[in-house]
Design goal:
Shape: elongated
CATH architecture of the largest domain: Orthogonal Bundle
Strand content: under 5%
Largest sheet: none
CATH superfamily of the largest domain: lambda repressor-like DNA-binding domains
Radius of gyration: 18 Å
Distance between the termini: 33 Å
Structural class: mainly alpha
Number of helices: 7
Number of strands: 0
CATH topology of the largest domain: 434 Repressor (Amino-terminal Domain)
Number of domains: 2
């Protein structure tokens, strides 16, 4: 799979279709600002919006769902590339998961996620 976020993929698909931002927004029944933010990965679209974008662009919904999931991974990779301490903490955590010393509950407690 290419290393592109959902927003990058939508923008490239729209341009390949020779469609303006305004035209895609109107045809997908969303605001131009919302689409602008989706294309810049500032907002994640709801499932119905993603389906409408898929239909207008003629792109299978599965491809957009893959890109949507990939966006979070790409953003995480960017974070750990900028922050060595975060990278080292993540590597340590992954080693603990692999050897059975950590599980989801341990991760939640370390992240203080409720």
């Amino acid at each position: 799979m290419e290393d592109k976020t959902l927003g990058e993929f939508v923008r490239e698909s729209r341009k390949r279709s020779k469609m303006s931002l305004d035209e895609l927004a109107k045809r997908a029944r969303i605001s131009k600002t919302y689409l602008f933010n989706i294309e810049r990965d500032r907002r994640g679209p709801s499932d119905p919006v993603l389906r409408r974008i898929s239909n207008v662009l003629g792109v299978p919904i599965e491809r957009l769902n893959e890109r949507n999931a990939m966006s979070a991974l790409i953003e995480f990779r960017k974070l750990i590339e900028r922050d060595r301490e975060l990278y080292l903490a993540f590597v340590s955590l992954m080693k603990n998961f692999k050897n059975g010393a950590a599980n989801a509950e341990v991760l939640r407690s370390k992240l203080s996620v409720r």
